[in-house]
Every structure is written in C-alpha cells, then in structure tokens.
UniProtKB/TrEMBL annotation:
Domain called EngC GTPase: residue spans: 73-220
Function, as annotated: One of several proteins that assist in the late maturation steps of the functional core of the 30S ribosomal subunit. Helps release RbfA from mature subunits. May play a role in the assembly of ribosomal proteins into the subunit. Circularly permuted GTPase that catalyzes slow GTP hydrolysis, GTPase activity is stimulated by the 30S ribosomal subunit.
Residues binding Zn(2+), per UniProt: 246, 251, 253, 259
GO cellular component terms, semicolon-separated: cytoplasm
Residues the entry annotates as binding GTP: 113-116, 164-172
Protein's name according to its UniProt entry: Small ribosomal subunit biogenesis GTPase RsgA
Lineage: Bacteria, Bacillati, Bacillota, Clostridia, Eubacteriales
InterPro entries: G_CP_dom, NA-bd_OB-fold, P-loop_NTPase, Ribosome_biogen_GTPase_RsgA, RsgA_GTPase_dom, RsgA_N
Organism: Desulfofarcimen acetoxidans (strain ATCC 49208 / DSM 771 / KCTC 5769 / VKM B-1644 / 5575)
MF annotations from Gene Ontology: GTP binding; GTPase activity; metal ion binding; rRNA binding
Cofactor: Zn(2+)
Length: 294
C-alpha cells in the first residue's frame, strides 16, 4: 500500500501524490460508490498500485477538517477572497464564507483584493468591520503587488483554500504568489458586475515556499451549514462579550426583551450590517428546522 494526498478529482479519476511527489492516476474501489463514501481533494488515502502509473484507492484516512463548499478535506487555512471593487463586495456572502470556514474548523483569513481601484478613505470602513472583530485581513493588488508578500507568508507551510465569488481575482492572486501556475483568469461582466468562472474543478497546487493551496470555482450564493439556531451566535465573535448579560439564557438576540446583544447593536458596539446578516442567517436556519421537523 502507498499513502498519498488526493490533489485532483476529474472525470471519475483521482490523482494521488505520494510522499515522494509521484502522482498516481487512480480509480476508487467499487465499495466507495455502494457505501456512498466521497473522496475529496485533500484527503489522505491509501492506494494499491496496478502498474507504474495507475492505482486503486483502497482507503480514505480520517479527516482533520472538511469543508462543504468548496468540498475539500484537511485544510487548515481558508483564504476568503473578495474584491473591494469590480465587483462590489457582497458582505452578506463574505459572512457566509467566514461561517462556512469556521463551521468546518478552518481558520478564515479575509483577503480584500483590487485595492488599487479605491482610495485609502474608501478602503478603511470595510476593513474596520472585520479588523475590530479580530479577523485577520490582508489587502492585495496584483496590479501593484500590494500585500502579496504577506499573502505568501500566510500560505507558507499550510494547506490552504482560496474561496470566494467569481471575478474577485483568486486565480490572478495565485498566479502572482506562485509564478508558473498559469491559471486561467476571467474578466468582469460590465452588465452583471459578476465574474465568469475560470476554475472548472477543485485542485490542490503545491507551492515552492512550502505548503499547498486549492483553487476552486467561484460561487455567487451559498447555503449555510446544518446547525441548530442556538449555535449560530457562536460564529459571530463580536457577540461574545455581550450575550452573557442577556435576560434569558437561551436568547437568540432577535425578538427577546432585555437583550444585551441588541443593545450593543443600537450603541454601535456591534456592526449593524453584521447583525442584520446574523438575523437573516437565523431566519434561514429556523426555516430549515421547521421544514425538517414538519
């Protein structure tokens, strides 16, 4: 048996890089389909070789982490990429990406790209929202080179995923931090202000300075991970200093009286837009709970 990492799945084949950096083209055992067991990019697997090129995936080893969208395993850092302009940043979608990363037990790092298109005065309000909460943020520009060294340092010796909507510059950033990748890049639709998909599949790419990174297709919308409504506030760290002072132990910070979180929103201690996203997510979770238990 040879142990390795799945670096790509395409056309029913899985490409496994072993510890000697050799890549095997593998098919999964038939029982994987019968047992409905998925093989994800990033999985550590055991394979049995057939010849000098091909093999069969015999076993998927236990996963440390697992993301649903994008579907990858064993990632320890999620680079959530959003453009500051062209397209305009959708902060609701950004908060969904952050929640998905944290629900998958993966540290999110927010990368605001295309900083060259805005002035410092325009950039600061967006950064302040997430800096004050405690999220790590990086401001980048492929055009000027701003933030690229910091991004390389974040990627070093980690298995990271680049995630975000289409057109924000994920592939361009990867081409900049790792010359030679030559990933396809796309233009923004002037009419729709959305990017065209340029990444067609999930693939694990090895970096020269150590570590791996996953380039993924962009997404314009995301469903929330399955969770209880009582768990949602735990993914909004800015609420941690307030919810203990709520009148009710099971406060959802929505319609309950004497809610310390709502008071903090009114006083400006919690960002109103982030709180609005929390309420939207809460309503979505409650809706799915009612459908499930109906």
């Amino acid at each position: 048996m040879i142990e390795g990492t799945v670096i790509k799945g395409y056309g029913g084949f899985y490409y496994v890089k072993d510890d000697q950096k050799y890549v095997w083209e593998c098919k999964p055992r038939g029982r994987f389909k019968i047992e409905k067991q998925l093989i994800l990019v990033g999985d550590r697997v055991q394979i049995k070789t057939i010849n000098k090129k091909n093999g069969v995936v015999e076993k998927v080893l236990p996963r440390i982490t697992e993301l649903v969208r994008p579907p990858v395993a064993n990632i320890d850092c999620a680079i959530v990429v959003f453009a500051l302009k062209s397209p305009e940043p959708n902060l609701n979608l950004l908060d969904r990406f952050i929640l998905l990363a944290e629900a998958g037990k993966t540290e999110p790092v927010i990368c605001f790209n295309k900083v060259d298109l805005l002035s410092n005065e325009e950039v600061t309000p967006v950064l302040d929202i997430y800096d004050k909460i405690g999220y790590r943020t990086i401001v980048t520009s492929v055009k000027t080179g701003a933030g690229l060294e910091e991004l390389r340092a974040v990627l070093k010796d980690h298995i990271s995923v680049f995630a975000g909507p289409s057109g924000v510059g994920k592939s361009s950033l990867l081409n900049a931090v790792q010359p030679g990748l030559q990933l396809k890049t796309g233009e923004i639709s002037e009419k729709l202000q959305r990017g065209r998909h340029t990444t067609r599949h999930v693939e694990l790419l090895e970096l020269d300075n150590g570590g791996y990174v996953v380039d993924t297709p962009g997404f314009s919308s995301l469903y929330l991970p399955q969770m209880l409504k009582e768990e949602l506030a735990g993914f909004f760290p800015e609420m941690n200093n307030f919810w203990q002072n709520c009148r009710f132990n099971g406060c959802l910070h929505n319609q309950e009286p004497d809610c310390a979180v709502k008071s903090a929103v009114e006083s400006g201690e919690i960002n109103k837009e982030r709180y609005a996203h929390y309420i939207m997510f809460l309503e979505e979770i409650v809706f799915h709970e009612r459908r499930f238990y109906k």
